[in-house]
């Protein structure tokens, strides 16, 4: 089931789909999406969660999703994805997989933990995690990213680590980074300047862009203009821009949603898809109904007047990320 005429990630020639599926909420029992515990219904056993992941992956594939995104810190996400790819006998011509390194999952399959994941962007962490990802996800893996880079990350200045990442790139795996926090734009601007042996190191960026925090937009536009692939995560703001978040949201979200006859999540994702620098927007669905609602964004066209109206939802980045940090793991 190869996907002809697929969009690509920037200049990498990696085929993707406009909507991808991220497995952050499917690979572990605890996550910060609103209503995550309700979605799982107390079914936290590994087998039950794998079956749920398989069902969502099947539904995504049936609806044309061809890009799947995981990370070492997403609990068993890489393991679930690997098992599904093998059981469904999918080839690297059928789907594209990206994953991330730099965080270690530490919650021990619990919804409550002192720390759910520990960040370390060291060369030693890369050398430990890359073989783990490779063993599970080759030959589907086309992209490996440094997870949640911030301005102080060694990925931006550690020459030994950068040389190792360049060596990975030379094997045919695209090298990227995801960014997070109120200083996303600053981080990306620094990453755009990183060169190893005279060439840009990074080829892809995954960033948070949503109607509440579009502050990375200018830097993402610059990355896209340089040929980088651009993947958007958290387009529904961990549930704040879904029906579950409407009570605390601006009335504008409800008004536009009703006027266009679409769900708030589809509207939010359509807003991200409308940005000219975007290659892929990730759905973080935990169930098939959420996924299908997210996918309705592909049928939504937003004119300039509506986009300006939705622009009134924007918050100060510091306020948005402060609120996000207070979301409970459930």
From TrEMBL:
Residues 47-313 form the NADP-dependent oxidoreductase domain. It holds the Pfam family Aldo_ket_red. Signal peptide: none annotated. InterPro entries: AKR2_Oxidoreductase (IPR053135), NAD(P)_OxRdtase_dom_sf (IPR036812), NADP_OxRdtase_dom (IPR023210). This is Putative oxidoreductase, aryl-alcohol dehydrogenase like protein. It comes from Deinococcus peraridilitoris (strain DSM 19664 / LMG 22246 / CIP 109416 / KR-200).
């Amino acid at each position: 089931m190869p996907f002809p005429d697929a969009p690509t990630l920037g200049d990498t020639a990696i085929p993707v789909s406009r909507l991808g599926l991220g497995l952050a909420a499917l690979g572990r029992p605890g996550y910060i999406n609103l209503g995550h515990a309700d979605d799982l219904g107390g079914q936290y056993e590994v087998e039950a969660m794998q079956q749920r992941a398989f069902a969502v992956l099947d539904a995504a594939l049936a609806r044309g999703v061809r890009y799947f995104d995981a990370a070492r810190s997403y609990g068993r996400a890489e393991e679930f994805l690997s098992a599904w790819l093998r059981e469904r006998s999918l080839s690297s011509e059928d789907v594209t997989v990206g994953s991330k390194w730099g965080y270690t999952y530490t919650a021990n399959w619990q919804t409550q933990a002192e720390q759910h994941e520990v960040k370390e962007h060291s060369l030693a962490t890369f050398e430990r995690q890359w073989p783990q990802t490779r063993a599970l996800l080759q030959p589907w893996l086309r992209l490996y990213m440094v997870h949640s880079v911030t301005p102080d990350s060694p990925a931006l200045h550690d020459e030994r680590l950068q040389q190792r990442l360049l060596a990975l790139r030379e094997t045919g795996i695209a090298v990227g980074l995801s960014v997070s926090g109120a200083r996303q734009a600053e981080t990306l601007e620094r990453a755009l300047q990183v060169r190893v042996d005279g060439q840009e190191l990074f080829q892809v960026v995954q960033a948070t862009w949503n109607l509440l925090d579009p502050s990375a937009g200018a830097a993402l536009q610059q990355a896209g203009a340089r040929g980088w692939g651009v993947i958007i995560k958290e387009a529904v703001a961990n549930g704040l821009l879904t029906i579950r978040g409407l009570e605390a949201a601006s009335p504008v979200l409800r008004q536009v949603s009703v006027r266009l006859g679409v769900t708030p999540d589809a509207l939010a994702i359509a807003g991200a898809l409308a940005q000219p620098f975007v290659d892929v927007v990730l759905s973080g669905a935990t169930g098939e109904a959420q996924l299908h609602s997210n996918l309705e964004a592909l049928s939504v066209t937003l004119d300039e007047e509506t986009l300006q109206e939705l622009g009134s939802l924007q918050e100060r980045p510091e306020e948005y990320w402060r609120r996000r940090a207070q979301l409970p793991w459930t």
